[in-house]
Design brief:
Shape: globular
Helix content: 40-55%
CATH class: Alpha Beta
Strand order of the largest sheet: 1-4-5-6-7-8-9
Number of strands: 9
Structural class: alpha/beta
Low-confidence stretches: none
Distance between the termini: 27 Å
Order of helices and strands: HHHHEHEEHHEHHHEHEHEHEHEH
Largest sheet: 7 strands, parallel
Bound molecules: coproporphyrinogen III
Number of helices: 15
């Protein structure tokens, strides 16, 4: 039994004394204890070494006491396992020397044996669970097939992911084949994560908002839905789509336990679009953590009042930024813990 089960209760839609809180991308970036590890080990070494991944996962919990931990890893370990050799370049981010641009490239990708290729993630989960000692739940995650696909075709980050879209619209058969392979791998991967001990899984669709509503349905949501359908009986699933408020009504019909929303939609509109039927997670603009702590407290209190304390998980609308002062991150977490209805 997990001692602090606020997050799991919120996912089940149960009444809580206050909503749970965690921050997307809470493990890393802005934390000095993380930066100290980053100076010694490169990115994928940190992901592949269970001692390092588990230590980084619990660092923010130790410092701030969030109501859930998220495993330190990356969405790109999935394509790596599929024979798509991503690197992490300092100053640039994810980099793929030979991006996927043809049917032949798609044919060369594989749907791997998860325990052979990603066993290190399962070891990191088991080690983290021991360190957490059932104090708080552990979240496992994967990128959405569309978001992973974006990096595979573009070969690096982008403001438009124009090459990814071009591939979809000029070679739709090959595009759907790759999306399906990523989906099949992700389903097997998340199932193993649940077996290894994660208490919930979140799907990050960071680039879903790049697509028109019709294309979103075809190239992103159809695949996310397959993942939700395959996983929901085994663990609660949270679907986070950045910039995807236009799809909330459709998303709320799925078997997801919660939907993540960003700051471009008001709590009221998000509740209306989802007919108040599902737990919502979000949605403070991450840049707002640059406001003074007293202002952060007001913003968080208002946000809880607007979403309502039940069926709600306090979070940012996207990952925490690297330049957030430590006291401001603390103000965000503390404001939730001090919340009184
Ligand atoms: O709380 C956590 O941070 C958990 C671990 C986590 C990382 N990446 C570690 C990481 C999670 C949940 C992710 C998800 C991820 N990775 C997403 C989806 C969420 C989002 O932010 O949209 C995406 C798109 C990626 C791909 C990725 N990884 C990019 C674009 C970059 C470079 C830019 C950046 O965000 O810093 C990464 C690198 C990365 N992943 C870092 C960390 C802590 C920073 C690099 C480093 O530590 O050396």
């Amino acid at each position: 039994m997990i001692k602090n089960d606020l997050y799991l209760k919120a996912l089940r839609g149960e009444t809580v004394s206050r909503p749970p809180v965690w921050m997307m991308r809470q493990a890393g970036r802005y934390l000095p204890e993380f930066i100290a590890i980053r100076e010694k080990y490169d990115f994928f070494t940190r992901c592949r070494t269970p001692e390092l991944a588990s230590e980084i996962t619990v660092q923010p919990i130790r410092r701030y006491g969030m109501d859930a931990a998220i495993l330190f890893s990356d969405i790109l370990v999935v394509p790596q396992a599929m024979n798509i050799p991503f690197e992490m370049k300092a100053g640039l981010g994810p980099y793929l020397p030979n991006p996927i641009r043809s049917q032949k490239d798609v044919d060369q990708t594989i749907v791997p044996d998860i325990n052979e290729e990603l066993g290190y993630v399962m070891d990191a989960i088991k080690m983290t669970k021991e360190m957490l000692n059932d104090e708080v739940p552990l979240i496992g995650f994967a990128g959405s097939p569309w978001t992973v696909f974006c990096y595979c075709i573009q070969g690096q980050g982008s403001k438009t992911f124009d090459k990814a879209k071009e591939f979809c619209f000029t070679q739709p058969i090959a595009a759907h084949q790759l999306l399906q392979k990523i989906t099949d791998t992700t389903i097997a991967y998340l199932k193993e994560k649940v077996k290894a001990g994660v208490n919930a899984v979140q799907i990050f669709d960071s680039w879903g908002g790049m697509l028109s509503p019709v294309d979103y349905q075809e190239f992103s949501w159809n695949y996310i839905q397959q993942i939700i359908d395959a996983l929901h009986a085994e663990a609660p699933v949270i679907a986070f789509g950045k910039g995807c408020w236009f799809a909330l009504e459709e998303m709320a019909k799925s078997k997801a336990s919660a939907l993540g929303v960003d700051w471009t939609v008001s709590p009221k509109t998000a509740r209306a679009l989802t007919h108040n039927s599902i737990t919502l997670q979000g949605n403070l603009d991450p840049s707002r953590l640059l406001s003074p702590p007293a202002e952060i407290k007001k913003l968080v209190t208002n946000m809880i009042n607007e979403f309502g304390k039940d069926k709600y998980i306090v979070n940012l609308g996207h990952g925490i930024l690297p330049n957030i002062p430590l006291d401001n991150a603390k103000a965000f977490i503390d404001a939730v813990k001090e919340y009184e209805a």
